[in-house]
Design brief:
This protein is of the alpha+beta class and 97 residues long. Helix 1 packs antiparallel against helix 2. It is globular and about 40 Å long.
Length: 97
């Protein structure tokens, strides 16, 4: 079963920033990051409990090939993406979102 995935505006901004950054370095890198984000979102929509909740209800997922963490919460019958941050970002701050 696949669940609907909602992307919060803050998360959309962070994804857009990361994509613009990598597209500025290389079109191929920008496209690879875009595909990595899409793949991750599809995976959590299909298997939202695949990743453990680590910060309250927040479930972090490392993107493949890129130093970013996509974080989401699994609410009843939907997945909400709350952010995409660099892996060096202090993880404790997820509780604030």
């Amino acid at each position: 079963m696949s669940y609907p995935v909602i992307i919060r505006p803050e998360a959309e901004d962070e994804i857009k920033w990361a994509q613009e950054y990598y597209f500025a370095l290389s079109t191929a890198l920008g496209e690879d990051l875009r595909l990595s984000v899409v793949e991750c979102i599809e995976r959590i929509g299909e298997h939202p409990e695949l990743y453990a909740a680590m910060y309250g209800k927040v479930r972090p997922v490392a993107l493949r090939r890129f130093p970013f963490i996509l974080s989401y919460v699994f609410e009843s019958k939907r997945v909400v993406v709350i952010g995409l941050v660099h892996s060096s970002f202090p993880h404790e701050t997820w509780n604030r979102r």
